[in-house]
Amino acid sequence: MVDVDGVVIRPRPGGWGAEMEADLGLPVATLQAHFFGPHWADVVLGRAGLHERLAPVLAEHAPHLTSRAVADYWFARDAQLDEALLADLAALRAAGVRLHLATVQEHERAAYIWNRLGLRDRFDAMHYAADLGCAKPDPAFFTAVQARTGHAPADLVLLDDRHDNVEAARAAGWGGVLWDGTRPLAEALADR
Question: Rounded distance, CA 22 to CA 27, Å?
């Protein structure tokens, strides 16, 4: 199991929205205060749609923008794949290891990552928060992913950039590897 943001997708310096005010005329602080803060939990857990919640916020705070324009900007700016890691993962997959994504995403970005970024060609499946109705580090996330795969906990390993997610994976009986991109994958996996 491989996380997406911070692992497969490298973070952009300053975050994906660092230049959004200059590019779109929308301060990231406005988006944080009026969209991510009050609405993100419902969107990322699949209880509400991205555009359903984003469009009214933009109508009030940035009427010159559509929710599609903001989503397209976000997804494109937050899509720098770590090709070196993906090459190492491809070698594992070629050796018979099944690779799955385990990520906290809402439906539209999950589809973008899977289809537009082509991760469907590099992984066997994707398990994400909005589809499952729960997110890492909630134990329910690990239980749901385990049920979907049919694997025993001891057969699953999470590669993630967040300590709380790695600890939650270990508490669920999985292996857990904290990824910071500074060590070769094989060395990091030896710590599981």
Answer: 8
